[in-house]
Amino acid sequence: MTSDIRVPEDLWEGDTEGVITAWLVDDGATVAQGDLIAEMMVEKAQYEIEAPVSGRLVIAKEEDEVVAKGAVIATVET
Amino acid sequence: MTTTSKSTSRKLTIARAMAEAMAQEMRLDPRVFVMGEDVGPLGGVFGNTRGLFEEFGAERVRDTPISETAFIGAAVGAASDGMRPIVELMFVDFFGVCMDAIYNLMAKNTYFSGGKVKVPLVLMTSTGGGYSDAGQHSQCLYGTFAHLPGMKVVAPSNAYDAKGLMTAAIRDDNPVVFMYHKSLQGMGWLGTEKGATVPVPEESYTVEIGKAAVVREGHDVTLASLAAGVHHCLRAAKILEEGGFSAEVVDLRSLVPLDRETLRESVAKTGRLIVVDEDYHSYGVSGEIIASVAEYSGCRLKAAPQRVAYPDIPIPFAPTMEQWALPNADKVVAAFHEMMKENRGENS
């Protein structure tokens, strides 16, 4: 089964777009639920993205890409 | 602030690697504490103290008033009296107001006391530009600190080295200036350098202060640099490879002590040297590296050494002007081709 990793709607206030500043795991790596996997930035503030489920991570949005809330940035194959 | 992870490839940004090293040493040694502007609840404007305030509290992670003179002076006193402070000078450009505490007290107290007083202080400070923060927030000043005796100076290019060098710095009984380049912090608005975010072991380890690393092997030219410059060199080496040339890249990692042996061995092999430095061109790191190689009779140079450094001007604010002045991979490649032209001239 494949689960989407989306930018949580409540990660920051307002509808400003954010940018992925760092992936902290490689594409194709195995991640565990709750692991810190990426960092995002909105107006100089950093936000963390955690793995919602365990499995194999497939990155969909690279570093420096601008993304809106709700956007799929990766998938996890469980 | 150890980021526990079961991922198969946990990577950290330099900012997180620094915080993890500090947290691990603070757990081991109650004498270690952190002090500086916005290092507390904010976690550092460059993200390198995130999580420390939450774990260790306001007693050991101390936000200071905006007086570098006062809090760096206080840190020197604390270090001389048995504590092991990590103190942050937010931008290295601000050194002017606190230089007496740094180079007359921190760097000299051990010598003046005949070795009776140790000053185990880590002064961490941000360097570098590229994001239009102008002439008082963008300098590197590596040469300024490395020139003055009595303190070690390190500048990592990636998160693995950052964690190991920070741990080594905290455990060192001498003052260590830990210079971290803003564009490598993984903070987005300061620039993004993917190569700086690398796998980092969760357990504690040290990287020896004073050892350079050959991060890419080659035989036609040695590209020597530090911090962000290492990534320019690695990109230049890739471009040169496409043209059939093989470049070796030396990451200095530490300016004091300087690993002249690794540099000399590399140039003895390649016969050519280009130094890449975001600090000012004249009277700085690039001149010292070239002199260190030229003084050594084992290096038979095939061409005059070159440097790709910052022009001797205050750093401009206008993005086009700043980008014009900064070192980059294309400038390194151009310097290499100039060098090869010179060779052909001699042979004909």
From TrEMBL, chain A:
<dbReference type="InterPro" id="IPR011053">
    <property type="entry name" value="Single_hybrid_motif"/>
</dbReference>
<dbReference type="InterPro" id="IPR000089">
    <property type="entry name" value="Biotin_lipoyl"/>
</dbReference>
<keyword id="KW-0450">Lipoyl</keyword>
<dbReference type="Pfam" id="PF00364">
    <property type="entry name" value="Biotin_lipoyl"/>
</dbReference>
<dbReference type="InterPro" id="IPR003016">
    <property type="entry name" value="2-oxoA_DH_lipoyl-BS"/>
</dbReference>
<feature type="domain" description="Lipoyl-binding">
    <location>
        <begin position="2"/>
        <end position="77"/>
    </location>
</feature>
<protein>
    <submittedName>
        <fullName>Biotin-requiring enzyme</fullName>
    </submittedName>
</protein>
TrEMBL record, chain B:
<keyword id="KW-0670">Pyruvate</keyword>
<dbReference type="GO" id="GO:0016491">
    <property type="term" value="F:oxidoreductase activity"/>
</dbReference>
<keyword id="KW-0560">Oxidoreductase</keyword>
<dbReference type="InterPro" id="IPR005475">
    <property type="entry name" value="Transketolase-like_Pyr-bd"/>
</dbReference>
<keyword id="KW-0786">Thiamine pyrophosphate</keyword>
<dbReference type="InterPro" id="IPR029061">
    <property type="entry name" value="THDP-binding"/>
</dbReference>
<protein>
    <recommendedName>
        <fullName>2-oxoisovalerate dehydrogenase subunit beta</fullName>
    </recommendedName>
</protein>
<feature type="domain" description="Transketolase-like pyrimidine-binding">
    <location>
        <begin position="12"/>
        <end position="187"/>
    </location>
</feature>
<dbReference type="InterPro" id="IPR009014">
    <property type="entry name" value="Transketo_C/PFOR_II"/>
</dbReference>
<comment type="function">
    <text>The branched-chain alpha-keto dehydrogenase complex catalyzes the overall conversion of alpha-keto acids to acyl-CoA and CO(2). It contains multiple copies of three enzymatic components: branched-chain alpha-keto acid decarboxylase (E1), lipoamide acyltransferase (E2) and lipoamide dehydrogenase (E3).</text>
</comment>
<dbReference type="InterPro" id="IPR033248">
    <property type="entry name" value="Transketolase_C"/>
</dbReference>
<dbReference type="Pfam" id="PF02779">
    <property type="entry name" value="Transket_pyr"/>
</dbReference>
<dbReference type="Pfam" id="PF02780">
    <property type="entry name" value="Transketolase_C"/>
</dbReference>
